[in-house]
Amino acid sequence: MCPEKERYVRVVQKRISPYECNPDGSLNPSRLVKEYARSAADQDKPLPHELRSKELLENSMGYLLKHVFDCAPNNEDDLAVWYDFLWSRTRAIRKEITQLMLTDKTAVALVERCARLHILCAYKLCRLGFEKFDQNMNTENLAKCLQSLRHLYEDLAAQGIVFDTEAEFRGYDVMLHLYDSNILRQVLSYRKEVRDSRPVRLALQLSSALQNKNYVRFFRLLRRDATFLQCCICHRYFNTVQAKALLTMMTAYGRNSVFPLDTIWRVLAFDDREDALKSLAVYGVQQNDMDYNQVCQ
């Protein structure tokens, strides 16, 4: 999974990840996975033996998912190391897909797994600070994965090859751009089966809810119809949508209004009552001293 030359260089430079070591900290060569390296203008093209074969790329991805991804730690520092390792190794796989000029079912399957990884990590690591997890960089990598899939689906469809997973990822593509007023034009370019699929229809309904400022409908659609990964990719909108919804409520009802706390935190998808109270406090809304189940301005 790692070229011999890279192995020697990384050992000398002490660039070995904990995920490539035995429990006692010693290097385990069978766990080494090729890491991502940026291309430079003066960098020589990789030699054939430095590129992994299609089969080896599949094996590398399978190893990463089974032995690293499924073993996510709970500690924040360890979680950051876990993500950095997965990002570097999956980015290297995507780079080699380009270098090998792969445009087949294997390439699609590999890039789809990379996209799912970035979708899940956007949610799983959202509470980490910027110094530990760069959400913008993760979103950029997700967007590149979805762009690559866009081209792969179109190129292979021209050859009569279509994928059952296309609707899923076309839906993610729309969900990543819910505030884009031109998204409908993009959807109209999809194949009819994809355009009429549940993931794409849901994405369009979510986009319509946000653009029409129907925040309750936005959360209701997610709660009722969305899969876990669809909720993960839409989680990036939660803080903004909750803030806009609360501001609208406070403006519409005016001062001295009373609201049921349980209804607010459930309808607007806060984690719990305490999470809702923190956001409400920003707008000068506190728990009612006479009834803790209500809040008032």
Radius of gyration: 23 Å
> Biggest sheet: strands, sense, closure?
3 strands, antiparallel
Which descriptor suits the 3D outline?
Answer: flat
Give start-end ranges of low-pLDDT stretches.
none
> What is the chains' assembly state?
single chain
The CATH top-level class label of the largest domain: Mainly Alpha
User: What would the CATH topology of the largest domain be?
Assistant: Serine Threonine Protein Phosphatase 5, Tetratricopeptide repeat
Strand elements, count:
3
pLDDT average, as an integer?
91
Question: Main traits of this protein?
Answer:
297 residues, mainly alpha, Serine Threonine Protein Phosphatase 5, Tetratricopeptide repeat, 2 domains, 3-stranded antiparallel sheet, 14 helices, 3 strands, 3% strand, SAC3/GANP/THP3 conserved domain-containing protein, SAC3/GANP/THP3, SAC3/GANP/THP3_conserved
Short précis:
The chain is mainly α and 297 residues long. Helix content is 59%, strand content 3%. It has helices at 4-12, 54-68, 76-99, 105-124, 135-157, 166-175, 183-187, 192-195, 198-211, 215-225, 228-234, 238-253, 261-267, 273-282; strands at 258-260, 286-287, 294-296.
Secondary-structure blueprint of this entry?
Elements: H1 4-12, H2 54-68, H3 76-99, H4 105-124, H5 135-157, H6 166-175, H7 183-187, H8 192-195, H9 198-211, H10 215-225, H11 228-234, H12 238-253, E1 258-260, H13 261-267, H14 273-282, E2 286-287, E3 294-296
Helix pairs in contact: 2-3, 2-4, 3-4, 4-5, 4-11, 5-6, 6-9, 9-10, 13-14
Protein name: SAC3/GANP/THP3 conserved domain-containing protein
GO cellular component, one term: cytoplasm
Domain SAC3/GANP/THP3 conserved: 1-286
